[in-house]
Design brief:
Blueprint (H helix, E strand, L loop, with lengths): L1 H17 L1 E7 L4 H6 L4 H17 L5 E6 L8 E4 L4 H9 L7 H23 L5 H14 L10 H4 L4 E6 L26 E8 L3 E9 L7 H20 L2
Parallel strand pairs: 2-4, 4-5
Antiparallel strand pairs: 1-6, 2-3, 5-6
Helix pairs in contact: 3-4, 3-5, 3-8, 4-5
Length: 241
């Protein structure tokens, strides 16, 4: 009956909560310095996440970043795909001594510009994920055979890195000294990470990293350390240009 179902749901939620490993790490600098480099803070932070993940796992993760489509009636979200040929080339170059700092900066700026352009397109209703999902669900509901695209790796791969920038200012009463440290969400995949980051004022970014405790290939604290190192290395790279 309903009581048993309710008790089962309660048990399931408690197990899920107990399996979440949450770590919060703060950056050593914020959007103020990043804007001085004439690049998008959000795109810069996305590249830091790419570098951190690659250093831990030596692979490029399929990455989800949420974009708001609230400028449209009934609009909710669209997906930003931060990974590009540019980001992969830059990430792989960062720890190579045979690539000059100038070339690394050039690759980083190309990766940042790609992510920025994709974000603008997604916010303005020119994203692809929600459109493709609609076609996929319509085909399934109507009993149509799925087009070949929906059997490809590009579609079936899971998002091992789910990300979102959390708003820091909710009301006009917002004050820097009393604002929240932020909030996070669980990973979309059992062997993945979720990273919610909140840009606070000009000099701080808080990263909220979540993984599943039972997964031995991911660990929130290691991802947090990797993000801080990526941020430090990116600042050193840009300062030297």
């Amino acid at each position: 009956g309903f009581a048993a179902a309710l008790e089962g749901a309660k048990t399931h939620i408690q197990k899920t909560i107990q399996d979440i490993d949450l770590v919060v790490v703060g950056s050593d600098y914020g959007k103020g310095w990043i804007k001085q480099q004439r690049v998008s803070p959000d795109s810069f932070l996305q590249m830091a996440l790419q570098l951190a993940y690659y250093r831990l796992h030596e692979e490029t993760p399929k990455t989800y970043e949420s974009a708001t489509t609230r400028m449209f009636a009934l609009g909710r979200t669209e997906t930003i795909r931060s990974v590009s040929d540019h980001s992969v080339k830059w990430v792989k170059s960062m720890d190579r001594e045979d690539v000059s700092p100038e070339e690394k900066v050039s690759l980083l700026k190309k990766a940042i510009q790609y992510q920025t352009d994709y974000k603008v397109a997604a916010v303005n209703g020119r994203g692809v994920d929600r459109h493709l999902l609609g076609l996929y669900l319509a085909a399934e509901e109507m009993g149509y055979p799925l087009p070949q695209f929906f059997h490809t790796k590009a579609w079936t791969m899971v998002d091992k890195l789910s990300t979102s920038q959390a708003p820091a200012k909710f009301t006009q009463e917002w004050k820097l000294h009393s604002c929240t440290v932020g909030y996070g969400f669980g990973p979309a995949h059992m062997e993945g990470y979720s990273v919610s980051y909140m840009v606070i004022g000009e000099d701080l970014v808080n990263f909220h990293i979540c993984t599943r405790k039972h997964c031995t290939s991911t660990m929130s604290v290691k991802m947090g350390e990797a993000i801080k190192q990526a941020m430090a290395d990116m600042k050193t790279l840009m300062d030297a240009k």
